[in-house]
Design goal:
The protein is mostly helical and 310 residues long. Helix content is 78%, strand content 0%. Helix 7 crosses helix 9 and helix 11 packs antiparallel against helix 12.
Length: 310
């Protein structure tokens, strides 16, 4: 009887309690603290829009100046000679994709293996601390130094400017991004999954290959896409390693090759208006490639966060 009486009284008082809470909430919206919070939120929104204005202005300018040159010939023809009309940037697009692919073939395996070492094999050892410190140090390495390194280790040894040398330079820039992202993605996998697999008799190699890497794949792929976006937009390393070419890559990987970044650098300094227009068009194409890779990385990052929350 006592319990039923208390329950009935609580149910009867519930509507009045809700009414009081709503009245207090309504009054709190008029308090100085709430007003200050609202004003600061509006200020943060305005500042965020102001911070986005440079990016939006660059995109609009590229669409306006470079969009006029968009055509099928832009992607299939060779760059025009000085003072000539027509042509395209087809060889520069292929050269950019090729050098980024070579850099990915070098940096992705090393970066993922390094992330596995830092997160699973020896996470607290002195060797891991040294590798982690070097990786973080490389993230702040000026890109031109990566170009100088590839020039001295590949160009001078082979005697040729080549996409291979450019791939080595870009791989040096991409490697720490992939390694540190892979480490965080593997660490985000719950320890109970690894412990359960070990309890069932799996070896450490099997745990890494069949449990950790598949589960952490969205996070690792996010780092890979962000690293590819960083590498695709670099210019200084390619000036030291690939230079430029007005022709298609025909024979092998050991010859000077065009790239979008170097084409923009060269044509933007030209006194001829036609080549400047191609520089704008190449800038638009390059920004589009980087934007697609970056948005893809962000989408995968959100997906990985949702999966880890589950």
């Amino acid at each position: 009887m006592t319990t039923n009486t208390h329950s009935t009284a609580a149910l009867a008082a519930a509507p009045s309690i809700r009414k009081v809470d709503l009245e207090q909430l309504d009054r709190s919206l008029r308090r100085p603290r709430t007003l200050v919070s609202f004003c600061l939120s509006v200020l943060c929104g305005i500042l965020a829009l102001l911070a986005a204005l440079p990016l939006l202005s660059v995109l609009l300018m590229l669409i306006w100046r470079g969009g006029a040159r968009l055509s099928l010939a832009l992607f299939t023809d060779l760059p025009p000679a000085a003072g000539m009309q027509g042509g395209g940037i087809g060889n520069a697009i292929i050269g950019t994709l090729l050098v980024v692919l070579l850099a990915a073939l070098i940096s992705i395996p090393l970066g993922v293996l390094g992330g596995v070492y830092l997160a699973e094999i020896n996470p607290e050892g002195p060797g891991a601390a040294v590798v982690r410190f070097c990786a973080k140090l490389l993230t702040g390495l000026p890109s031109i130094l990566a170009g100088v390194f590839a020039y001295t280790t590949v160009v001078l040894l082979t005697g040729r400017f080549s996409p291979l040398a450019g791939g080595v330079a870009l791989a040096l820039i991409m490697l720490p991004i992939i390694m540190l992202t892979a480490e965080e993605a593997i660490r985000s996998v719950g320890a109970e999954m690894s412990e359960a697999a070990i309890g069932m008799g799996a070896t450490q190699t099997q745990v890494v290959w069949h449990i950790l890497l598949p589960t952490a794949a969205p996070g690792i792929l996010t780092g890979v896409l962000l690293a590819l976006a960083r590498g695709a937009g670099e210019t200084a390393p390619l000036l030291f390693t690939m230079t430029f070419s007005d022709y298609w890559l025909t024979r092998h990987l050991m010859e000077p090759t065009a790239s979008l970044a170097v084409l923009i650098f060269n044509f933007s300094k030209s006194p001829f208006e036609a080549q400047k227009e191609f520089a704008w068009a190449a800038s638009l194409v390059l920004v589009f490639i980087v934007l697609v890779l970056t948005l893809g990385g962000q989408a995968l990052s959100r997906q990985a966060t949702k999966m880890s929350g589950l």
